[in-house]
């Protein structure tokens, strides 16, 4: 009897300890739930089969679903098949043991779209086997909107800083920066860089005759005509100053620059802009100077500008409405 009483007491003690342990576990789980529910981030635990086993309050609110409606469901059933397809490869890597952070947009079943930043961390058991993953995500829609707005503003500022307000082609600042960039790049590859400088013949007379508004319209047409001719992505047409324009031609030898110069000249003539005060014809014409060189470490782009400017001066001296090549 004494032995049975001892066993009974031992069993009752074990039951009391188990009940106390269960109470502590429930308290811990409740404390954990309260903590995770107070965090302004979506938190979830997903098992290796990609079923939800835990979500916090923010996760429920984001998907407009109760915890009971989420738990046990596959990931794609909650986030949608399209979003799941976009992140599947990341989840695959996490289930291989890698931690990953990603940003992506998601459209909830309510139709609302958000941009989120998500960190996924693998969950391991005692034998170091991956048994699922934890995820924490933040809604960064507003941050993304501000970033996009900032990018648009920066792009607009870049336009204002580097493009000519009248002709809407590159301005002198852009020209200087790009010429230096291409000079240094072609110096490394030892390739040819060509430059064309051209201006409108007797443009002051044109302004005096037709007025400054007509003069501005003339420059706009000339800039556009030159831009249409010079259409390689690496080439640049810029307003060099006043009625003078410049064309940077990377990886273009003298013969190639000549072809471009002739095409520009023909395009300007095709505009057939009347110029009754011109001393070389009845329509607007241009004079062009062409220079080509291979950049070297001991020279600066100024030498190319000087050569092209001298060639332009020669074209004017020879009667205008023509091009001249620097020798």
From TrEMBL:
Residues 28-98 form the PAS domain. InterPro entries: Diguanylate_Cyclase, GGDEF_dom, Nucleotide_cyclase, PAS, PAS-assoc_C, PAS-like_dom_sf, PAS_4, Rev_trsase/Diguanyl_cyclase. Gene3D superfamilies: 3.30.70.270, PAS domain (3.30.450.20). Residues 191-327 form the GGDEF domain. One of its GO terms (molecular function) is diguanylate cyclase activity. PROSITE patterns: GGDEF (PS50887), PAC (PS50113), PAS (PS50112). Residues 100-152 form the PAC domain. Residues 1-38 form a coiled coil. GO terms for cellular component: plasma membrane. Keywords: Coiled coil. GO terms for biological process: cell adhesion involved in single-species biofilm formation; negative regulation of bacterial-type flagellum-dependent cell motility. CDD domains: GGDEF (cd01949), PAS (cd00130). This is Diguanylate cyclase. It comes from Oscillatoriales cyanobacterium SpSt-402.
């Amino acid at each position: 009897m004494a032995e049975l009483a001892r066993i009974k007491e031992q069993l009752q003690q074990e039951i009391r300890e188990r009940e106390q342990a269960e109470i502590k576990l429930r308290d811990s789980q409740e404390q954990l739930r309260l903590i995770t529910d107070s965090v302004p981030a979506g938190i979830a635990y997903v098992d290796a089969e990609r079923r939800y086993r835990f979500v916090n309050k923010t996760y429920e609110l984001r998907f407009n679903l109760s915890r009971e409606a989420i738990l046990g469901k596959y990931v794609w059933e909650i986030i949608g098949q399209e979003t799941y397809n976009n992140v599947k490869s990341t989840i695959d890597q996490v289930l291989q043991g890698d931690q990953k952070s990603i940003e992506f947009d998601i459209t909830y079943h309510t139709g609302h779209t958000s941009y989120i930043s998500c960190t996924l961390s693998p969950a391991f058991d005692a034998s170091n086997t991956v048994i699922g993953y934890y995820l924490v995500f933040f809604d960064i829609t507003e941050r993304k909107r501000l970033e996009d707005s900032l990018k648009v503003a920066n792009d607009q500022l870049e336009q204002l800083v580097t493009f000519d307000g009248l002709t809407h082609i590159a301005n002198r600042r852009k020209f200087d920066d790009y010429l230096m960039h291409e000079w240094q790049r072609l110096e490394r590859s030892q390739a040819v860089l060509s430059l064309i400088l051209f201006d409108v013949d007797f443009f002051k007379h044109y302004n005096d005759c037709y007025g400054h508004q007509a003069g501005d319209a003339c420059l706009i047409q000339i800039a556009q005509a030159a831009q249409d001719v010079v259409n390689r992505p690496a080439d640049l047409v810029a307003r060099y100053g006043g009625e003078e324009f410049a064309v940077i031609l990377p990886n273009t030898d003298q013969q190639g620059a000549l072809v471009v110069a002739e095409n520009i000249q023909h395009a300007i003539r095709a505009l057939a802009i009347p110029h009754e005060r011109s001393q070389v014809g009845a329509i607007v014409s241009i004079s062009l100077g062409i220079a080509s060189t291979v950049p070297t470490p001991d020279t600066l782009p100024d030498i190319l500008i000087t050569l092209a400017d001298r060639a332009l001066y020669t074209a004017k001296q020879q009667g205008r409405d023509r091009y001249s090549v620097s020798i």
